[in-house]
Design goal:
Length: 311
């Protein structure tokens, strides 16, 4: 890749042109997108597991229907994203194998267990809230298929976030035991939600280049701060407290100051050592193996139809 090509590509990015699948692009740009979109897709698919855990135990038919729809949406987001990644010349099989072998990451957040019904509220409110904060700017990502996929994904995520907040509100206004459940869920999900935004900018390996290529529009720390600023007043409205003694409004900055993330925990979970990493991959491997015959049957069916059409 010569200098002139890279400069011409950067000029297209700087002019806010969308890059499309058949456009020439630097190998690094393609690789970064395959990595990020693939990881994002895996996160949606693995993300179905912690919440799927509560579908049969939802406290009412209304809650069950909403949760079922939400988990189904996540499956849909995963498929959209795999398709977006496929436009870059990588196959779904390849991406799945990378997930199952541990080569491809997925979001750290989905390696924590869902212990009570309140966790479903906390996940919708905090985890989907963090996901939206990260994904709204991706609607303006320089790669066309990823940006377009994000538009619908974000609309659905905002419904997810509201259903979660509504669960939290119901619990927070319920019996003392229910309020206690909501508080306990916030205590356990707060820090892992902040970890979703990734390492500090100074430790973000890909951050600078992805900003330059306008794949990312904000840095990890910028998005984390926006999330804290948006979420703390919501928690206060619920009458709940955050498990961070250093959390306080900073008048000068017009933002909340907050404590330091436990980065040892973050990297341990990212590298496979979180409380549920093993279970998540075991579940995905089983789903992939159990689905083998369905994939074979679908291919055989498509092949038969093609042969019949050509006959
Ligand atoms: N969980 C797991 N891995 C993470 C996390 C996290 N929360 N944050 C960062 N990492 C990984 C990165 O993937 C990278 O590893 P890699 O080189 O093997 O890919 C490494 O840590 C260093 O991080 P960065 O250099 O900062 O990585 P990047 O520039 O890709 O930024 C981010 C990370 C912000 C997650 C980015 O990839 C992104 O915006 N992805 C799209 C959104 C997404 O995947 N959301 C998933 C959760 S939301 C949901 O699915 C509902």
């Amino acid at each position: 890749e010569d200098e002139a090509f890279l400069a011409a590509f950067q000029a297209r990015i700087d002019a806010e042109e969308k890059i499309e699948p058949n456009d020439p692009m630097p190998e690094g740009y393609r690789k970064t997108l395959v990595r990020q979109i693939g990881q994002h897709a895996h996160s949606e698919i693995v993300g179905m597991l912690p919440e799927g855990n509560w579908i049969t135990r939802a406290p009412s038919l209304r809650r069950k229907a909403a949760l079922l729809a939400k988990v189904q949406d996540e499956g849909g987001h995963g498929l959209y994203l795999y398709s977006a990644a496929e436009t870059l010349g990588v196959s779904r099989e390849q991406m799945t194998e990378e997930l199952l072998s541990g080569k491809a990451k997925y979001s750290s957040i989905f390696n924590y267990p869902t212990l009570t019904w309140a966790d479903i509220g906390a996940i919708g409110w905090l985890v989907d809230g963090a996901a939206i904060m990260n994904q709204i700017p991706l609607c303006r990502c320089s790669y066309g298929p990823y940006a377009r996929a994000m538009i619908r994904v974000c609309k659905e995520e905002s419904f997810h976030q509201r259903q979660g907040y509504e669960i939290m509100m119901t619990l927070a206004r319920g019996t003392p035991e229910q309020k206690e459940m909501a508080q306990d869920a916030l205590n356990r999900w707060w820090w892992p939600s902040l970890m979703m935004f990734g390492p500090h900018d100074s430790d973000s390996q890909h951050g600078d280049q992805s900003m330059k290529w306008k794949i990312k529009r904000f840095t990890n720390d910028e998005l984390r701060q926006k999330f804290v600023d948006a979420t703390v007043p919501q928690g206060e409205y619920l009458g709940l407290s955050f498990p961070d003694p250093d959390l306080r409004w900073n008048e000068e900055r017009g933002s909340y100051d907050f404590g330091e993330i436990d980065w040892d925990e973050f990297w341990r979970v990212v590298k496979g050592g979180g409380p549920m990493n093993r279970e998540r991959i075991v579940a995905r491997r089983k789903a992939w193996e159990d689905g083998q015959w369905v994939r074979e049957a679908a291919l055989a069916h498509a092949e038969k139809r093609r042969a019949r059409r050509e006959a």
